[in-house]
Amino acid sequence: MSEFYEYITKQGDRWDLIAWQFYTNATLYEPIIKANPHVSIEPTLKSGIKLKIPVTGLTQSRKNS
């Protein structure tokens, strides 16, 4: 069974920035996109979207920012 963090997007969020926040690697956004097929792939995400962030060995402790 996979584990996920829950993340609510903020104004100006992008897939790569979210990957950087959780994995400290902006190129690792594909697992996040795959875990959220209900979200359109746009350059900038709308605020208030609930995302599932897969927990991996690269996942950093979530920062509340």
Summarize the structure.
This protein has 65 residues and is an alpha+beta fold. The chain has helices spanning 15-23, 30-35, and strands spanning 4-8, 50-54.
Describe this structure in words.
The protein is of the alpha+beta class. The protein has a single domain, classed as Roll (Membrane-bound Lytic Murein Transglycosylase D, Chain A), CATH 3.10.350. 23% of the residues lie in helices and 15% in strands. The protein contains two helices and two strands. Strands 1-2 form a two-stranded antiparallel ribbon.
- Helical content stands at 10-25%
Distance between the termini: 28 Å
CATH-defined architecture: Roll
Roughly how many Å is the radius of gyration? 11 Å
Element-by-element helix/strand order: EHHE
Task: Give the biggest beta sheet.
Answer: 2 strands, antiparallel
What portion of the residues fall into strands of 2 or more residues?
A: 15-25%
**Mass-distribution shape:** globular
Number of domains: 1
**Please, what is the average pLDDT?**
89
Sheet with most strands: strand arrangement: 1-2
Kindly state the number of beta strands: 2
Number of helices: 2
Please give the CATH class. Alpha Beta
Q: What oligomerization state is this entry in?
A: single chain
Instruction: Write the CATH fold name.
Output: Membrane-bound Lytic Murein Transglycosylase D, Chain A
